[in-house]
Specification:
about 170 residues; two-stranded antiparallel sheet; 5 helices
Length: about 170
């Protein structure tokens, strides 16, 4: 992409699997850069798991040098313990890009789905299909399809590209 491109990091927070996806955005053009998941071992203590997510996300930022980040907002979970753990992982997803000096925007799950698929109640398979259509050079597709966490993270980055001019973004 040219000099006017903005590199966007999308983050799908999760304690077991934190998805990430990076795109370049210039005008109305989207280009796939990279995607993947950072994994933590559920047998490890919580602090070790959070450190693993922090270090992995920091490596992604160092390697790909995004200029902005976007994170999915947490939805309400019926299990308070799960909600608390997800909130801690989400804290990592917010603080690591902020520590790197990136502005961080947040988007509701329904807005992400609506932006990428046209409906706010799309299934994960629909999201992955639309991400594949919008980013045809996405190398993260395996024979079974794009990993759900990476597809969601790319959808978050795409949403930011479409809404970044109106999003409230905190600059470091």
């Amino acid at each position: 992409m040219g000099a006017t491109a903005i590199r966007i990091l999308g983050i799908d927070p999760g304690l077991r699997n934190m998805g990430w996806g990076i795109i370049d955005y210039a005008g109305s053009r989207l280009s796939y850069v990279a995607s993947g998941s950072i994994h933590s071992n559920s047998r490890d203590e919580l602090g070790v798991r959070l450190r693993r997510l922090h270090e992995g996300l920091a490596r992604v930022i160092d390697l790909h040098a995004p200029q902005e980040a976007a994170v999915e907002e947490t939805f309400v979970n019926r299990d308070p313990q799960s909600a608390l753990k997800l909130g801690q992982a989400r804290g990592i997803a917010l603080v690591v890009p902020a520590l790197a000096g990136l502005p961080v925007a947040e988007y509701a799950a329904n807005l992400i789905k609506k932006t990428v698929t046209g409906t706010g109640h799309a299934e994960k398979a629909q999201i992955a299909l639309m991400v594949r259509m919008l980013l045809p050079k996405c190398a993260a597709f395996d024979p079974q399809g794009l990993a759900a966490d990476a597809a969601d993270a790319l959808a978050i980055a795409i949403t930011h590209a479409h809404h970044c001019k109106t999003a409230v973004v905190r600059r470091a």
